[in-house]
């Protein structure tokens, strides 16, 4: 195999694929990327961790010898990063080594044969639909902060996607860690009818979100079955991310979305966020809770810490129900408030022990539920 590639293209491609590769691997081949050069001048670069696979195609300056080889992902990425701007990088594989040349630099790296490189077998992916990259990015951003990191509850370690028939057919994304729930709803895309309920793993979500940064106004093709999902960005010669799905059942989260919370609090999400952030400065691990006292048209935020003293702040608000005191984890509350773009946020409350519904307004596609803490 022999190919010459512009450094900028090679670097961008390697930055996408190498982040899939785990730093510590017991299987040596999984530390490598597979580089395939075809006679038509196209070079494919692939990385996998056995659950997730990213393939990117790029145009080479020239391909003088078709072939395929695997080489250390992080090593090649580090080399490409340090090569001079504007240089052309020559990759040549022979005798179990890969020679990398650019300008006056020359590296000789060990390789492993391509036949040992594992590829995820996609099988049949019967459901196929497209989403604008911007919509898919927002769907991820509005929900992924609530993904659980507890490995024991593996079925919560991802974003749950499912279709539903309400007033109109919709596609919903949901994530929860048991303390908070995030849900984002969009119109059901053409082709998504009858799709299986799927849980996209946390790592696949993170890698996909990185790839979407450069997708611009394009569409993303999504093909899935009950066990695999494939995202294709940038059409032919673009990037393809394939992931196994989490084999588990996501809980019926609709049961925890409160419908009878009759106390309505409206306020500016930015001033609320800043107030919570300020009083939480003195909170410690033991006292992560911020107490929220609701009175007519104002909110009193307070934190009491046995080590660091007390803090309190008043925030103007619209509230006309009877007074109420409720506690929330300050970080969880800030995570949710950080998702609200508008000038007002609505909190629908019942009492100090019941989950609170948070949203921008009743037409907002994003909805959040936060469990209270005892304070």
Automatic annotation (TrEMBL):
- Please indicate which superkingdom the organism of origin belongs to: Bacteria
Q: Could you tell me which SMART domains the record lists for this protein?
A: POL3Bc
Protein's organism: Croceibacterium xixiisoli
- From the Swiss-Prot or TrEMBL record, give the protein name: Beta sliding clamp
Taken from the UniProt entry, a GO cellular component term is: DNA polymerase III complex
- Biological process terms in GO annotation: DNA strand elongation involved in DNA replication
Q: Which family does it belong to?
A: Belongs to the beta sliding clamp family.
What is its quaternary makeup? Forms a ring-shaped head-to-tail homodimer around DNA.
């Amino acid at each position: 195999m022999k190919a010459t590639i512009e450094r900028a293209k090679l670097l961008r491609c390697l930055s996408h694929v190498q982040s899939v590769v785990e730093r510590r691997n017991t299987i040596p081949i999984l530390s490598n990327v597979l580089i395939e050069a075809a006679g038509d001048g196209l070079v494919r670069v692939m990385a996998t961790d056995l659950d997730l696979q990213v393939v990117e195609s790029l145009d080479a300056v020239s391909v003088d010898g078709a072939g395929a080889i695997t080489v250390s992902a992080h090593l090649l990425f580090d080399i490409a990063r340090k090569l001079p701007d504007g240089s052309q990088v020559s990759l040549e594989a022979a005798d179990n080594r890969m020679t990398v040349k650019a300008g006056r630099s020359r590296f000789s790296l060990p390789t492993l044969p391509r036949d040992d490189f594992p590829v995820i077998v996609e099988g049949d992916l019967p459901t196929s639909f497209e989403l604008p990259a911007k919509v898919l990015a927002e769907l991820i951003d509005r929900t992924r902060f609530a993904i659980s990191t507890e490995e024991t509850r593996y079925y919560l370690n991802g974003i749950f996607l499912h279709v539903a028939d309400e007033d109109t057919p919709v596609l919903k994304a949901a994530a929860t860690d048991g303390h908070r729930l995030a849900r984002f709803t969009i119109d059901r895309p053409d082709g998504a009818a009858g799709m299986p309920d799927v849980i996209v793993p946390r790592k696949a979500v993170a890698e996909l979100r990185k790839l979407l940064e450069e997708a611009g106004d394009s569409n993303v093709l999504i093909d899935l079955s009950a066990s695999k999902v494939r995202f294709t960005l940038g059409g032919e010669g673009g990037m393809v991310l394939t992931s196994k799905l989490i084999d588990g059942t996501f809980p019926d989260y609709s049961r925890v979305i409160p419908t009878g919370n009759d106390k309505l609090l409206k306020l500016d999400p930015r001033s609320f966020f800043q107030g919570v952030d300020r009083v939480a400065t003195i909170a410690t691990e033991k006292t992560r809770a911020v107490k929220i006292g609701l009175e007519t048209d104002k909110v009193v935020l307070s934190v009491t810490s046995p080590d660091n003293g007390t803090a309190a702040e008043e925030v103007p608000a619209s509230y006309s129900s009877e007074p109420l005191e409720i506690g929330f984890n300050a970080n969880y509350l800030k995570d949710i408030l950080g998702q609200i773009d508008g000038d007002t946020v609505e909190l629908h409350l019942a009492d100090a022990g019941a989950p609170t519904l948070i949203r921008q307004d009743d037409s907002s596609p994003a909805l959040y539920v936060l469990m209270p803490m005892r304070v």
